[in-house]
Structure prediction request, 334 residues.
Amino acid sequence: MAPLSHFPFVQDASGAGFPAAGEDLWIDVIRKMDEVYADLIASQTALEERNIELERTLAELDSAHKKLRQTQQQLLTSEKMAALGRLVAGVAHELNNPISFVFGNMYALKRYGAAITDYLRAVDGGHSADELAELRQRLKIDRVLADIGPLVDGTLEGAERVRDIVQDLRRFSASQREPLETFNLVRLIHTASDWVLKALRDPPELQLDLPEKLDVTSRKGQLHQILVNLVQNAADALKGRDGGLIAISAATQGDQLVLRVADNGAGVAPRHQDKIFEPFFTTKPIGTGTGLGLYVSYNMAGKLGGSLDYADAETGGAVFTLTLPLVSAEDDGE
Ligand SMILES: Nc1ncnc2c1ncn2[C@@H]1O[C@H](COP(=O)(O)OP(=O)(O)OP(=O)(O)O)[C@@H](O)[C@H]1O
Ligand SMILES: [Mg+2]
Prediction:
């Protein structure tokens, strides 16, 4: 449409303008304006429709986002379950030793009890001293008596071991909001690595560089889970390799704890290094890894006021460094 300024205007006395070229031109202008107006209305309607469409898309995106969050939550729970499953396998293995020990001892004690009963019956039965001496030798009564003490001690030790394992398991299954407690981290490192490695058919060598005792105030179950995840990853990285070695060290640095879990596997490929802490990143075959172990551990470390980092180990392989305050703050980890 030609701009209005192209039409020759004259001014009347009131100052209002009108086209001098006649009514036709004026009608033409009005028609053009009508067309423009209709175009505008059509564009507005189109815009409104587009808006409605956008709102619908937004609502769909919102619900997809909610679903994703839900799925993520479910997967996090399933990671916990998977970790628990691995632990249960470890625990079953770990429990097996003391239990078979206790069983073996109890069978021996039962046999010893029968021998002692036989001998006492013979004593009560008025046998001669020679007969009793012969019986005593045959029933190995002296060896039995000497053995009873160590057998009972060994059995008690086995039962205590079972009790400790069950206590550790209860701690692991405790809720995320477990209370802060002061405990010896060295013992926790032993239990966590034992649980992973004892469940393996061909475990790698474990090298520990730990102080006698290292008291920390933290959330024991969470630290246990972080340790199990790191040791499990190291063990996975060494699967099928000869001379596999996992080195765990822990030391204090000022008011911080610095714990390292290193292995001499292949390490993390440079292109994967910025992805390993992301949820669901895994290079393991489907059904083996969920890719949540490091994500969960990273977040737990953060909530405890610390950090978890990866570096290539000097000797090749991976080294994960967990830094934590020796004393976590009460509001951390909630
Ligand atoms: N010690 C390691 N050596 C080499 N690669 C590692 C090591 N630890 C982790 N990774 C890499 O980081 C990835 C992510 O580890 P993460 O623990 O989060 O998941 P995952 O072990 O694959 O599965 P999940 O722990 O859930 O069973 C692994 O798949 C692996 O590629
Ligand atoms: Mg893992």
